[in-house]
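Possible regression after last week's pipeline update?

I re-ran a chain I had predicted before the update to compare outputs. Posting the input and the new output here so someone can diff against the archived version. Not blocking, just want to make sure nothing changed silently.
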Amino acid sequence: MRQTFHIDFIKKSKIFFGISLGIMLVCLILNIFVFPTLVDIQFTGGTIIKYSYSGDLKAEDIEKTINDTIKESEGLKNDTIAYSYSDNLAKSEQDSNSKIVSLQFTGNKAVSVEDKTAITEALEKAYPDSTFKEASSSSVDASKGTNFFFKCLAAVILAAVLMIFYVALRFKKIGGLSAGVMAVAALIHDLIIVYFVFAMFRMPLNDNFIAVVLMILGYSLNDTIVIYDRIRELRKKSSPKTPIGEIVNTSLNQCMVRTICTSITTIMAIGSVLVVTLIFNIDSIISFALPMMIGLISGSYSSLCIAAPLWVIWKNHQAKKKEEQKNDKVPSKNKSKKNSKKGTKSETKKSDNDSKKAELDKTETAE
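New output (post-update):
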């Protein structure tokens, strides 16, 4: 593969780290003060009710009608409700209802039949020409939702540990354990970006979030492994005195085209799906395709600009530490040698003095 770029990734690593930290800091502030995280009932427990209707109605009017109705219900007045709207793709030729409004109730109890009937009657009374009908209803127990969340979290953690183990074995000749840890650090960067995409676009965290996370782990790790493989090959061909930063820079420049092209082809495929889902307003697929696209971009960026530069910084730190330890040992050896030489000289001088004194005594005795 020919090297067509000459970007100094290692020298500019602080800029890349600063860009990532800046984006995450801004998103964190917006997440705390402007766009709080939404969590689907799959994790928190609750009920989703979908109503089909026809005509062009304002979302604010529909929500006001429903909010006024549930205020009178003892079972629902303390629940929070999230609304979403989409097109009714399942409508038949006889059914004129072309829109769907979804009500997500977050609570520990399922919505009773009486409450559902009250909401339906209130909508029919407020909008008699829109023919509101209950399309579907599903409930999830809060304890089951929590268990599902922790199982998904355990799956992600297990995947990360296995990735470290795999990279440590595959690239042990170039320090595989540290390479694996830095690869997972880059993956954590991608997961944080995906999380903020869900938060900023007001998409609740659900099973789509876990699916996107696991797919991004695979794509990002694949790019990182290709780069590590190139580093291993170049290190075999290079002189032992060649700096590791120079080898990594060459590897990154050689792999950059491959990494970008792989991501672009995948993004184009997912982008076409996203366009179709935006046209038909299918929320369940939008919440997968959009974070997936941004996650792929983040994965390519982290493989080139985060994982490898982090690994070089760690290797340089280790080399510097070994050099300092080596330098600490050398002066102590020199000091012991000097002391031994000094002792030898003093002993020689003492023996000379003793011999001179003995000769002097002999002379005095002879006289």
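Follow-up from reviewer: compared with the archived run. Strands lie at 46-53, 80-87, 99-106, 133-140. Marking as no regression found.
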